Amino acid sequence: MLTSEANKARASRRPERILIVEDEESIREAIAHSLQRESYEVLTAADGTAGLDLMQRGNAAIAFDLLILDLMLPDMSGFDLCRQIRHQGSNLPILIISAKSSEGDRVTGLDLGADDYLPKPFGMRELIARCRVLLRRWDAPPPPPPLLTVRDIVLNLHLANVLVRGKEISLSPKEFQLLEIFMLHPRQVLTREQLMKQVWGREAIGDYKTLDVHVRWLREKLEINPSQPEYLITMRGFGYRFC
């Protein structure tokens, strides 16, 4: 349930604004009408140049939350428009709609930075549902920095640091990578082959002395008594287990 503060914040927000760039008037108007019935604010453009002009005016009053983009435009392709938008650094959600329904066209559109691809003909209910998904994703708060925690060891992937019993320790890049793998698989036995492949690459498999040295260095930084490890346990004949 929303708190009163969340309700006030939602009520004070402007309607979500969608730009439709589509050269076929009947399709453009049908989409606009359907979205307006869902309480979205809609602006339209019949070609890529007009669409870019609307997006590049730099006026907060016409900032957009979603772009619905046709591929076959009279002045430029939707692919080119999508490329320009992403080249300018915009992360505006883009939904491509197109009669081009081949896998190659879909892949090209997504590779250029589109967030979704809906082939024509489509139902308005599906279009609106896809718009809702993209707008929800765009509106969601950023995820917190990823933390891995095992007992009293905390590894922060975002900040690339490690706390052991509340104190930050210094690790080399390989030590950090090795600890990350262990903490992603707590209480699992990881073979030397698995660890070598993930940290040093397939060509290094067999050079277990390097791995064992890094494990020893990790123990010196993690364990209260490295000679009697509590976290990084050797499983003789198998590999290592982090617990």
What does this structure look like?
With 243 residues, the chain is of the alpha/beta class. It folds into two domains: 15-139, 3-Layer(aba) Sandwich (Rossmann fold), CATH 3.40.50; 147-242, Winged helix-like DNA-binding domain superfamily/Winged helix DNA-binding domain (Arc Repressor Mutant, subunit A, Orthogonal Bundle). Helix content is 41%, strand content 21%. It contains nine helices and twelve strands. α7 (173-184) packs across α9 (208-222). The longest helix has 16 residues, at 124-139. The radius of gyration is 26 Å and the shape is elongated. This is Response regulator transcription factor. Residues 17-135 form the Response regulatory domain. It comes from Drouetiella hepatica Uher 2000/2452.
CATH topology of the largest domain: Rossmann fold
What is the 3D shape? elongated
Overall mean pLDDT stands at 86
Assigned CATH architecture of the largest domain: 3-Layer(aba) Sandwich
Helix-strand sequence: HEHEHEHEHEHEEEEHEHHEE
CATH class of the largest domain: Alpha Beta
Question: What's the number of structural domains?
Answer: 2
Helical content class: 40-55%
Low-confidence stretches: 1-12
Main sheet makeup = 5 strands, parallel
Rg calculated over all Cα atoms: 26 Å
- Going by helix content, strand content and strand pairing, the class is alpha/beta
Q: What is the terminal-to-terminal distance?
A: 38 Å
Number of helices: 9
| Biggest sheet: strand arrangement | 2-1-3-4-5
Strand coverage percent: 15-25%
Q: What would CATH call the homologous superfamily of the largest domain?
A: Response regulator
Number of strands: 12
